[in-house]
Amino acid sequence: MSNSRLMDTNGRGVAPEFLVSPQMLDVVSPSGDRGGMVLGSGLQGEPLTISVLRSAPTRMVVVGGLYLARQIALRAMATGAWITIATGRPAAWQPVVRAAGAGPDGRPSPLVQLRRLSPVELPRPSEDTPLLVVHDGGHVPQELFPPRSPWQTTMYVLPYLHPQAATTANSADLVLLQRLPVGQAQLASQIWRLPPQMAHQLTTLKDDQVIALGTNLWRPLRLVTTPGEQQILGAVRRGD
C-alpha cells in the first residue's frame, strides 16, 4: 500500500533519512517514506505522511489539544531531530522529555530541551541534525523563534483560534485542525476562505480526526497511535 504525501520536500520529492536509536523506534513506528512522518491514515486506511523537517524554513500550526502536538514532537524525535520546546507549562511536556531518555552521563538527553517563552539561542540545524521548535505560547503566539534557515521547523501550538492569531495561521505551510466549535469554525472560514461545507466539517470531527490544511490541500485523516506512544501519551483524544 503506497503512502499519500501531505507535504513534499521543497517540491523535490522525499525527505532525507535520519538515524534514530532502537529504543526510540520501539516507541514510534518508522515511516516507509524515508524521513517522512506517518501522521495518520486516510479514509481508505492508507497511511498519510508529512515532511515536517525540510530543506526550507517551515511553519506549522496545530489547533487543538496538546495530544497531537506532543505526538508530532515524539515522531520528529524518532527521525533524529533536535526538539526545542518553548512553553509556559513545562510539566505538560515532561512525557516527551522522559521519552528521550538519558545520555551516557545519566543526565536527561540533550535531544529535547525545555525553554521559557523568551528568545534564546537555538541549536544550528542541518540536514543531519534538523530542528523542530515547538512554540506552546497560548492562543496569540509571538514570533520568538521564526524559522529562518533550512531544516528548522517552528510548530505553533494553538489551544483555539483567535482573530489575533490570523497572521500566524495564514502564513503557515501546514495547518492541522482538530474539532472546532461553531464560532471558531466560522473564524477558520474567514482566515482560509473556506466554503460553508468545509467550515461545517470542522465542527463534526471526532476526537481522533484531523484536517490537514495547506495550499491546495484539504485532507481529512484519522490519528493512529502506536502502543509505545499510548504508554507515553495515553489514548488518542481531542484535548488535555
- Tell me, briefly, the overall form: globular
Order of helices and strands: EHEEEHEHEEEHEHHEEH
Our estimate of the beta-strand percent is 15-25%
State the total count of DSSP E strands.
11
Measured between the Cα atoms of the first and last residue, the distance is: 33 Å
Mean pLDDT: 83
Helical fraction equals: 10-25%
Structure classification: alpha/beta
Model regions low in confidence, pLDDT < 50 over at least 5 residues: 1-5, 7-35
The order of strands across the largest sheet is 1-3-2-11-10-9-4-8-7-5-6
Main sheet properties = 11 strands, mixed
Number of helices: 7
Cα gyration radius (Å): 17 Å
How would you characterize this protein structure?
This protein has 240 residues and is of the alpha/beta class. It is globular, with a radius of gyration of 17 Å. It has a domain at 55-178 and 211-232. The longest helix is centred in the first third of the chain and has 13 residues, at 66-78. Helix 3 links the parallel strand 5 and strand 6. Mean pLDDT is 83; it is low at 1-5 and 7-35. The chain has 7 helices and 11 strands. Strands 1-3-2-11-10-9-4-8-7-5-6 form an 11-stranded mixed β-sheet, with helices on one face. It has helices at residues 22-27, 66-78, 94-99, 166-170, 182-192, 196-203, 227-233; strands spanning 4-5, 37-41, 47-50, 58-63, 82-87, 112-115, 131-136, 152-158, 174-177, 209-214, 217-223.
